[in-house]
Amino acid sequence: MVHAALLPRDRLGARRAFTLPAQRVSFDALIAALKRRYPQSRSTVAFAPDAEIEAQFARQPVLTTALGDLLGFRHDGDLDALVRQALAQAAAS
Q: Please, what is the Cα angle at 83 between 53 and 65, to 5 degrees?
């Protein structure tokens, strides 16, 4: 949000809504990242595909984020960074 607040008005033009860069991830990759973050945890996470949910969300095209990229917005980089930063933000709130 700080990055957005500091953008010069002339760089935005007339648009005030655009897609931010995001990572495309699978649940198994997210679970693997959580296990790497907490290797000693005895917690278990399991998931099973749900055809109805997959029909709505799992088969979407890759997001186009050209304007967000041009304006300097970035996603977390990789799943390990996403997990680390999301948990840090959750702990801070």
A: 65
Of 55, 75, 93, 67, nearest in space to 12 by CA: 67
On whether residue 11 sits in a domain, the answer given is: no
Q: Is residue 68 part of a domain?
A: yes
Number of domains in the chain: 1
pTM score, whole prediction: 0.69
Residue 18 inside a domain? The answer is no
- 42 — pLDDT class (breaks 50, 70, 90): confident
User: Quick one: tokens of 15?
Assistant: 């648009």
Question: Is residue 15 helix, strand or coil?
Answer: coil
